[in-house]
Amino acid sequence: MMGDEIQEYFKTGLEVAKEAGERVKTDFYKIKKIEMKENYADLVTETDKAVEDLIMLRLSKKYPSHKFIGEETVSAGGHCELTVDPTWIIDPIDGTTNFVHGIPHTCISIGLAVNKQIVAGIVHAPVLGETYTAIKGHGAFCNDDKLSVSAIQELKRGVVIIEGGTSRVPEVLDPKISNVKSIIENCHGVRAYGSAAINMCFVARGTHAAYLEHGIHVWDIAAGKLIVEEAGGVVCDPCGDTLDLMNRRVLAACNKEVAGQISKITTNISLERD
């Protein structure tokens, strides 16, 4: 696929993300209709569904041969398979719990994969007024500012993002808590913003040394992965292996050295694949 095609797809995706962002921003200040998915901590709103429908409708109308992986479509029993075909990977509201509670760290995440590789990424956070973007080989940006990861080489000099996630099962939650303790003991401090896509963008902009999470999905990290890499960072499996987008775990870091230090002090957690 030619670079001009990717550029054109990206331009369309960005336009759609910003259109959808207007709906998210409007509904952010309204009372939400909330439903539960897997448990009481796994939430979805009517806005999630409406935004995903809007994005898929716009993109499928323009690119009828393209495929889609959308969070709410998959949650409703839809197919989740990453093939070699151009595939839009969509999280209509990443940070739904934040959205429900009026916390501004919520965004639309759209990644485009070709031959199973992410070639374009868009993370649009309309309430924050920030739009993070990347095209493979062309750098990463927040609005018009070029992004670059932190230059630190030692974990003890950085701030790390680590999330609790929605699972309340002891065999998942207990090692997560242990990982938090290990990270705290070895860095300046930990943060949790409640949005995987935004977490990855914060690594890309250089304010945070790394982000670790077990329990995410492909739609949470597809766009963010490219944004981190194009800002000069690394994205891998928490054990240090090559990232499998469908494996539901991620480690994004400013460099291999910091990623390796985190891998050594944390426990990897296996979950059901996407």
Question: Would you write up a description of this structure?
Answer:
There is one protein chain. It is built from 8 helices and 14 strands. It is globular. The model has no long low-confidence stretch (mean pLDDT 95). Helix 5 links the parallel strand 10 (159-162) and strand 11. The chain is of the alpha+beta class and 274 residues long. Strands 3-4-5-6-7-8-9 form a 7-stranded mixed sheet, sandwiched between helices. A 5-stranded mixed sheet has the order 11-10-12-14-13, sandwiched between helices. A two-stranded antiparallel sheet has the order 1-2.
What's the structural blueprint in terms of helices and strands?
Blueprint: H1 3-28, E1 34-36, E2 43-45, H2 46-62, E3 67-70, H3 71-75, E4 87-94, H4 96-101, E5 107-114, E6 117-125, E7 130-135, E8 140-142, E9 145-146, E10 159-162, H5 170-184, E11 189-191, H6 196-204, E12 210-214, H7 218-230, E13 234-236, E14 249-253, H8 256-265
Parallel strand pairs: 3-4, 10-11, 10-12
Antiparallel strand pairs: 1-2, 4-5, 5-6, 6-7, 7-8, 8-9, 12-14, 13-14
Helix pairs in contact: 1-2, 6-7
Strand content: 15-25%
Q: Mean of residue pLDDT?
A: 95
Number of helices: 8
In order across it, which strands form the biggest sheet? 3-4-5-6-7-8-9
Ends apart, CA distance between termini: 26 Å
The string of secondary-structure elements, in order, is HEEHEHEHEEEEEEHEHEHEEH
Radius of gyration: 17 Å
- Strand tally is 14
Major sheet size, sense and barrel closure: 7 strands, mixed
Structural class: alpha+beta
| Net shape | globular
Q: Show unreliable segments.
A: none
Helicity range of the residues?
Answer: 25-40%
